[in-house]
Amino acid sequence: MSELIRKNASELVELLGKGEISSVELTQAHLDRSMAVDHDVHSYLHQDASTALSAAADIDRRRAAGEKLHLLAGLPIAVKDNLTTTDAPTTSGSKILEGWVPPYDATVVKRIRAAGLPILGKTNLDEFAMGSSTEFSAFGPSRNPWDLTRIPGGSGGGSSSVVASFQAPVAIGSDTGGSIRFPASVTGTVGNKPTYGAVSRYGLIALASSLDQVGPVSRNVLDSALIQDLIAGHDPHDSTSLPESLGSMADAARKLDVKGMRIGVIKELMGEGFQPGVMNRFKESVNLLQQAGAEIVEVSCPNFEYAIAAYYLILPAEASSNLAKFDSVRFGLRVAPEGNPTIERVMAATREAGFGPEVKRRIILGTYALSSGSYEHFYGAALKVRTLIQRDFAAAFEKADVLISPTAPTTAFKIGEKLEDPLAMYLNDIATIPANLAGIPGMSVPNGLADEDGLPVGIQLLAPAREDARLYQVGAALEKMHEDIWGKRMIDFAPELEVRG
User: Fold this and answer.
1) What is the pTM of this model?
2) Is there a catalytic annotation at residue 300?
3) Mean pLDDT of the chain, nearest integer
4) Which domain covers residue 98, as residue numbers?
């Protein structure tokens, strides 16, 4: 394996800036890696080597001509396949959009292109981002590079596995209830969900509009900070976009200091159902933070126990509305049934053929929750719980600057293990869902390996809305403590994948 692809993005950016490597050389190295391993990992749904290399060559020409470029110019990146791209299909992991090439780029994609980052490809995901394992992709599951028999998380398992398998230095994901953070936890990567509205959702194929947020996936905290600085900022195309800047995340990540900070341990995310190895690593990190000068306090968020129930009413309700546009008329798949093909029959046949089982399950649940006889009893009650969870966070942040918990209750489970039990699958997001309901930022940082199976676990950091910089400051400091103890990055413990000719 080329040593280039094992370097952090921040290291690669420095080499590019000094002219010690070219963007073409770096992009080709990652494309070669994908040719060697992605037949097993299945991180990508679409790659176009010629387009990526053309973008890289353009940056090399501009750099050689002395043009002033963006700090990250020439750094290859992968993009989750629910962000629209004009030069590549955008399927959102669904047969109903197979082969669809959008007429416009998502704002995040525009900013990536404007900065000169070659896009290596579009990554796999659970269909319309509905899932926790990437097993609900219509095009087959992605696999965890640590153990190919296990899931890489979801819905963004493609983005986590592409970074963990060294096929891309950084990637873009989306997080509706933990779809960046849970995959990061089980693949030993860093995943960040910014404050709701900090990054534009324009061009993101919506799952649940009040919950979705775009964010970075990387192999260290500083790299995620650099990507968030690139993609964040106000967008007039997105009515929920924050008008103000949240400052430099990269500057925060370089502080490496937690002395005097109040770190809150969430009592409700410490109990039954958490794997012993996950809890052992979590307690060790709490001790490390305390030794570094942080004040550890316990906080209680009693309404978190209702978070999953509220989430799985709010999300399906919004999803059923958002997915109504996939009707066989405007774009995407169209199936004409035999006999008299009325619009109603064409629509029914198209949605039957184009949507997978999890999407159908959530559409049915959401439509029922929004029906006139059930709205107040289900959807209205879920919105009230959402308010209570927001109040829990507000009270907790009066006592602490940052809250911490395990990112997920377990390490990566086996592919197929939970497909027949949707409720068991949903419980993977028990720790991550509250942040989406409240609109606050959350980050997962690698937190060692579980005693039982030697697989990675993550620690989750949460901060008040607009205080994303706190996550990067604490996350980078904790990352440095771990590296000092383990002697290397957590990702470097991953077994080497078999490379085929």
Assistant:
1) 0.96
2) no
3) 96
4) 3-300+394-493
